[in-house]
Amino acid sequence: GFLVARNNLVVRRCLITMFTFSLLSLAFVGQFPVVAERSLGIDERSTAYGLLYACFGIGAVTGALSIGTVFSRRSKPRIVRAALVAYALSLVVFALLRSPAPAYPVVVVVGLTYFAFITSLSTVLQSQLADHERGRVMALWIMAFGGSVPLGNLLAGPIIDATSTTVVLLAGAVWALVLAVYARLGPVAEPH
Which positions ≥6 away from 62 have C-beta within 8 Å? Predict the structure, then answer.
């Protein structure tokens, strides 16, 4: 898997994008109860919190399904970059909210753009792989996707305690914008 990533620029960029996004831009997922309580005044044991998390989930499902339906004929590399920008913008809005009411529709957009990005990036990655490479590289994908989120939360916790949830969410949004520039995933020109 590492050899494939080393030899294929698009595969390498997909994995680096996924790893660093999960590490630096997804801290809100693990810190969701803290964000809800400190920024929005929503108790994590309340129905309001359950609804907030459900709104995020509805957005995520919608974003994932949209890639294979509404956006099935669209360029996945372009969707990756657009979704990263939209995710960053919606995360900034979510980070700055201090009232629960607008948080519900905003977190739907956060979830939608998050999973539109993830699904498109996964599609781009898999389109670059031969059948005999897919299992090895997708093992790296899973580690990049799921394995780095807990590490990001280990980093985010002390930063939140020292500053605020807003700082961590805004930093995640800035990193998503950096990745939107980095994630040039189109076809690579053959060397002459």
Answer: 108, 111, 112, 115
